[in-house]
Amino acid sequence: MNLFQRKRQRPFIYPTERRDIELVMYARTFGCWDQARAEAWLREHSIPYRVVDISREPGAAERLLHWVGYLSVPTFIIARPGEDEPIAPPEPLNGRRPRGLHRGTLITEPSNEQLLAFLLDHKLVAIADNELAV
């Protein structure tokens, strides 16, 4: 049973105090369902993130195309504060589809569970069991 299937006792997900890196979301001005869902999930858990809008910011779409091969949003990277590039090059796709693939410092169009795993790996969130958590 995974964390999102538990009914009686859902996990309490909270941001850590880590400040040497930040979560950056590559997004569009007019996003899609995946972008809206991911933003709602991040807000629900008070997880800080910064948006790079590929519709408005010069060079952002080209960077995303280089990393992913598509203009897929949301794409999340782990960056140094204020930077728009990953802290390390993402792992290569090697013919795999990018959707939901954890590539070290980058993940594209993740499910909530995949995004949680990505954030846990980078120690940007922690989990505490709490019967009152919703």
UniProtKB/TrEMBL annotation:
<protein>
    <recommendedName>
        <fullName>Glutaredoxin domain-containing protein</fullName>
    </recommendedName>
</protein>
<dbReference type="Pfam" id="PF00462">
    <property type="entry name" value="Glutaredoxin"/>
</dbReference>
<feature type="domain" description="Glutaredoxin">
    <location>
        <begin position="25"/>
        <end position="78"/>
    </location>
</feature>
<dbReference type="InterPro" id="IPR002109">
    <property type="entry name" value="Glutaredoxin"/>
</dbReference>
<dbReference type="InterPro" id="IPR036249">
    <property type="entry name" value="Thioredoxin-like_sf"/>
</dbReference>
